[in-house]
Specification:
This protein is an alpha+beta fold. It has a domain at 39-45 and 62-143 and 207-527 and 598-626: Glycosyltransferase (Alpha/alpha barrel), CATH 1.50.10. It is built from 23 helices and 14 strands. The strands form five sheets. The protein has a four-stranded antiparallel sheet with strand order 2-1-13-8. The protein has a three-stranded antiparallel sheet with strand order 5-10-9. Strands 6-7-14 form a three-stranded mixed sheet. Helix 6 packs across helix 7, helix 15 packs parallel to helix 18 (381-400) and helix 19 (408-431) packs across helix 20 (461-476). Bound molecules: 2-acetamido-2-deoxy-beta-D-glucopyranose (8 copies). One 2-acetamido-2-deoxy-beta-D-glucopyranose binds next to helix 12 and helix 14.
Length: 630
């Protein structure tokens, strides 16, 4: 009798278990966690074409070419085999950060254990700039460096691209053979594009450290500090090599753009930057803006020939880099990272405010219709917006906790809350697809089917839709530390609209999270095509690295190379003069004044995509949605 009773109970339990199936959101999160985990390198591999070099602990990330149009063309972009595995810090840094963020603010099954996270953090450690003389300087590079005995410098080395290009003709033959074997058509066109792209690659090989990887690493350090209980020892290890905040701030300010300075090192910027930023500079002449590269003109003159140089030998401004710098600073101050706040001086406060103002201004002015120049390395608009929204989220949280912060944080809060709670929402409403749920950036949006009819493939749709959810949550909720839930910011009249937008996108993600290619375009070279070369834009500095000036109208292409030139804008040029300069030719080429999108014939540029990054931001969207308090 007792036995029977037990058996009945047992059967009952099974029934309940089956009818009460795991809700779809949990299932989807489990599946995402598994996919992300599968894309971490657990067994390093050496380059032996077609085997790519893969570094232990890094997450998958790959270089592809943005071909588009008819099916045969599009195939070259999305083919399963046509890519180069890339060992960079950026993708792994972001994936780690996103996974930790989902742990902190979301409700999800266990996302990552100490061992796996430790592998990623160890891998990121190898991306420090080794040319620093002081110890523990948290200055980071996109690619790790190798020591060059001839030049006595540490040089950035994108392993697989470098190997491919060093043995270019050998690899090319092999690539051709493999592609033929796979039955891929129009190989000739692909090879052609690789040839042109590889010329551009050579230039980026020698890149100095940058402030986006640098401040991404700062944000990550803060997260490790906050999660010390969950992941013991990782923060302490991070501190060992990253504690020199004084030097970090010195460097951030040394390489900042100060248009009103009298010093060429500080007041000179890429002519492509100046083209879109000039009204901002006119209205904010005392601005101090975070730049991309940790190098100045004085330095590039002497060290370029030793294999460390900014592309085109000059610094630029990218709003995405700016958004990451702002986040790094915001989190370091709010959560008191080492002694960062002791060095947060007046100049650094100005840099913080100026850079945040530029971000708000760029969004309000739709990047002056030149996203190709404003997001010069990071074309994904949804990704940029998300990076910016993360600072707003932290600032809102700090206000709710009555943290006392310098006044500049209130000003940045006003700027960001205004733009994110109005302009950005409007942007989503204007760009949502006809299903009112999902969003496309540009990968595959110009593809056509065999009948020549437009048939977008939605390759960045999952990414863009997930980031939209993450942005809306970052803009309209705060994390309540007492309940551990995300709470709506109540005094917002548009909240109903926002909730519906989020609900729609979450439903779409649950349905489609595995139905499209999980691509994104998280990074690219600054040149997308002929129109993005800096030389065609108005400039007032034309020099060789040795300081000799030259006349762009009489450039001796036979004996001189632009490779060693510095073409830039120093100081402010008044608008009347500038307009006249726009109407003139530079190096005999008219100024490219319009941008026709990232999919234009002839402009098939290399881009960086990471599937596990898409899966992690999707996980973050679901985990946060799952933790919303209604
Ligand atoms: C580091 O020190 C060496 C020798 O003193 C010097 O040549 C080099 O320029 C310094 N590097 C930096 C980045 O300061
Ligand atoms: C540019 O870098 C050089 C070498 O590090 C440094 O001496 C100089 O002060 C820098 N320029 C400015 C304006 O900071
Ligand atoms: C060392 O640097 C020089 C100058 O950039 C370069 O020409 C050379 O190929 C480098 N050597 C190695 C082994 O990478
Ligand atoms: C969003 O979805 C949740 C869960 O399905 C539901 O409770 C809520 O009412 C929805 N909100 C809106 C505004 O549709
Ligand atoms: C400076 O470099 C340019 C281009 O390499 C060269 O033509 C010129 O002669 C150099 N000037 C001096 C003074 O060395
Ligand atoms: C390039 O240099 C050579 C030798 O100095 C000279 O003969 C030739 O005219 C130069 N080319 C141009 C286009 O000036
Ligand atoms: C400038 O371009 C025009 C065509 O656009 C060409 O005819 C002319 O020869 C070029 N001049 C120089 C100096 O290259
Ligand atoms: C790509 O598609 C967009 C949106 O449909 C369109 O505005 C643009 O003109 C297209 N570009 C090309 C080169 O076909």
């Amino acid at each position: 009798m007792i036995l029977l009773h037990k058996m009945f109970y047992f059967i009952l339990c099974i029934c309940i278990y089956y009818t009460n199936a795991i809700p779809p959101i949990e299932q989807t999160m489990e599946k995402l966690i598994k996919l992300i985990s599968d894309d971490q390198v657990l067994k390093p591999a050496e380059f032996k074409f077609p085997q790519w070099e893969k570094k232990l602990g890094l997450y998958r990330s790959e270089v592809r070419l943005d071909f588009f149009g008819e099916p045969l063309q599009a195939e070259l972009r999305k083919n399963k085999y046509i890519y180069v595995f890339d060992n960079n810090m950026f993708a792994t840094g972001w994936i780690s950060s996103v996974l930790l963020e989902a742990t902190m603010y979301g409700r999800a099954p266990k996302i990552i254990d100490t061992e796996r996270l430790s592998l990623a953090i160890d891998a990121i450690e190898t991306f420090h700039d080794h040319n620093q003389n002081e110890s523990s300087v948290p200055l980071m590079t996109f690619w790790s460096q190798i020591y060059n005995q001839t030049t006595n410098t540490w040089q950035s080395a994108p392993d697989n691209l470098r190997y491919l290009i060093t043995d270019f003709d050998d690899s090319l033959q092999l690539i051709e053979d493999i592609l033929k074997l796979l039955g891929i058509k129009n190989i000739a066109q692909l090879i052609d594009k690789i040839r042109t792209s590889s010329a551009a690659f050579k230039d980026v090989f020698q890149i100095p450290p940058d402030f986006d990887d640098t401040y991404l690493n700062i944000g990550l350090g803060v997260q490790l500090k906050l999660l010390q209980d969950k992941y013991p020892s990782l923060y302490l290890r991070w501190l060992q090599t990253n504690s020199n905040m004084k030097k970090l701030i010195d460097l951030t300010l040394r390489y900042a753009y100060k248009p009103s300075s009298q010093n060429l090192d500080q007041n000179t910027i890429d002519p492509r930057t100046y083209f879109w930023i000039r009204d901002f500079v006119r209205d904010n002449p005392q601005a101090v803006l975070a730049t991309t590269w940790a190098q100045n003109i004085t330095e590039v003159r002497t060290i370029a020939h030793r294999g460390i140089r900014m592309p085109f030998n000059l610094n630029n401004i990218d709003v995405t880099v700016g958004a990451n710098v702002i986040y790094g600073i915001t989190s370091a101050i709010i959560y008191d990272l080492v002694d960062f706040k002791d060095y947060f001086n007046q100049d650094m406060q100005t840099l913080y405010l100026s850079t945040a103002s530029l971000i708000a201004w760029s969004i309000k002015n739709s990047m002056k219709n030149r996203p190709d120049l404003a997001q010069v390395y990071y074309p994904s608009h949804y990704n940029f917006l998300w990076y910016g929204s993360r600072s707003l989220f932290l600032l809102e949280l700090a206000r709710r906790q009555d943290k006392s912060l310098p006044d500049v944080f209130n000003r940045v809060y006003s700027l960001l809350s205004d733009v994110y709670r109005s302009d950005v929402v409007k942007f989503f409403q204007d760009h949502v697809r006809s299903d009112k749920s999902s969003y496309d950036d540009f990968l595959g949006t110009n593809d056509t089917n065999i009948f020549g009819k437009l048939e977008p493939t939605g390759e960045d749709r999952i990414f863009s839709t997930a980031q939209t959810v993450n942005i809306l949550i970052a803009s309209f909720t705060y994390f309540d530390i007492n309940t551990g839930r995300l709470k709506w910011i109540t005094n917002e009249k548009q909240l109903d609209t926002i909730k519906i937008m989020i609900n729609n996108s979450i439903s779409w993600l649950l349905e489609n999270a595995f139905k499209y290619q999980p691509f994104n375009c998280f990074f690219s070279g600054s040149v997308k095509g002929f129109n993005q070369l800096p030389f065609w834009y108005p400039a007032n500095i034309y020099q060789f690295l040795n300081g000799t000036t030259f006349d762009p109208d009489h450039f001796d292409t036979e004996n001189q190379s632009l490779m060693d030139s510095i073409v830039g804008v120093s100081g402010y040029i008044d608008e009347t003069t500038y307009e006249r300069m726009i109407s003139q030719k530079h190096f005999n080429v008219s100024t490219p004044t319009t941008f026709n999108g990232y999919n234009v014939p002839g402009g098939e540029f290399p881009f960086w995509s990471s599937q596990p990054y898409t899966h992690s931001v999707t996980l973050l969207a679901l985990a946060q949605y799952n933790n919303l308090d209604d």
